[in-house]
Specification:
The chain is α/β, with parallel strands linked by helices. The protein is built from ten helices and ten strands. The structure holds adenosine-5'-triphosphate. The site of adenosine-5'-triphosphate has 12 residues, from strand 2 and helix 1.
Length: 257
């Protein structure tokens, strides 16, 4: 298993955002985390990347517990993420945004960054090359000199993925990557995530676009009100009574609102 979530709970004051949730992700899988709004999906990402510590339970990555490790240590171990709200440096070029992602794993310290040693110049060249390769992977190489803020929305989301990939993740966490995308952009996002999987990277994805989730994921966990409602293949999830009810219940709420 690449990632083991073991009996994880998270309380924010009186809110039980996650209640005793467990699931495991195998090497090379695309694993979906779905559920209605407020179900606890992003909280789970925030626990895996230790923006918050779990109230109880354990998170095990590559057979080591990472509960309580600092976020940058977790990145070093090989977990990277994108965010629901795009977090790019809007005034930097696409290339620089990806290079910044790679810096979190480059070895040069403060001394060399002040005096620009030979080692740092070499590292900069390597980072530049790697950033270009990643931009090519996500289909943005021709826009490498474009400021992030001038990219189309779908392109910004792809750039976020390239930036997360710059630190060589073994596990990539994608938080609603298709949000705001049109059908064509979503189709090419599907191809991109499959390509990432073919490179041996494990993917955990939160997504509300159900056709995409069902087409893309090998297995899925459904959360509802902080609890695990179901786990299984896309077909099992689509036929699960409790899941259908949770989603239909929401639709009825929306309809009567
Ligand atoms: N930092 C926080 N402080 C207090 N409550 C929080 C915090 N983060 C999340 N919550 C609460 O935890 C619950 C789960 O929220 P979370 O954002 O994880 O849901 P989600 O499944 O990602 O929802 P969405 O699909 O709308 O993004 C919600 O009730 C939310 O208000």
């Amino acid at each position: 298993m690449v990632l083991d979530i073991k009996n994880v709970s998270k309380n924010f004051g009186g809110i039980h955002a996650l209640k005793n949730v467990s699931f495991s992700i195998k090497q090379g899988e695309i694993y979906g985390l779905i559920g209605p709004n407020g179900a606890g999906k992003t909280t789970m990402f925030n626990l895996i990347t230790n923006i918050f510590e779990p109230s109880s339970g354990d998170i095990i990555f590559d057979s080591q517990t990472i509960t309580g490790l600092k976020s940058h240590k977790i990145t070093e171990k090989g977990i990277c993420r994108t965010y629901q709200n795009i977090r790019l440096f809007s005034q930097m070029t696409a290339l620089k945004n990806v290079m910044v992602g790679g810096h979190s794993r480059s070895s040069s310290g403060v001394f060399s960054s002040v005096f620009r040693t030979k080692k740092q110049r070499e590292e900069e060249i390597q980072l530049n090359q790697k950033a270009e390769d990643l931009l090519e992977l996500v289909g943005l190489l021709e826009h490498k000199d474009t400021l992030a803020e001038n990219l189309a929305y779908g392109q910004q989301r792809r750039l976020e993925i390239a930036r997360a990939m710059a630190s060589n993740p073994k596990l990539l966490l994608l938080d609603e990557p298709a949000a705001g995308m049109n059908e064509k952009e979503t189709d090419s996002l599907y191809d991109l995530i499959k390509m990432i999987q073919s490179k041996g990277i494990t993917v955990l994805i939160i997504e509300h676009d159900m056709p995409l989730v069902m087409k893309l994921c090998d297995r899925i966990t459904v959360l509802n009100f902080g609890e695990k409602l179901a786990e299984g293949t896309p077909t099992e999830i689509q036929n699960n009574e409790a899941v259908i009810e949770a989603y239909l219940g929401k639709e009825e709420e929306y309809e009567s609102a």
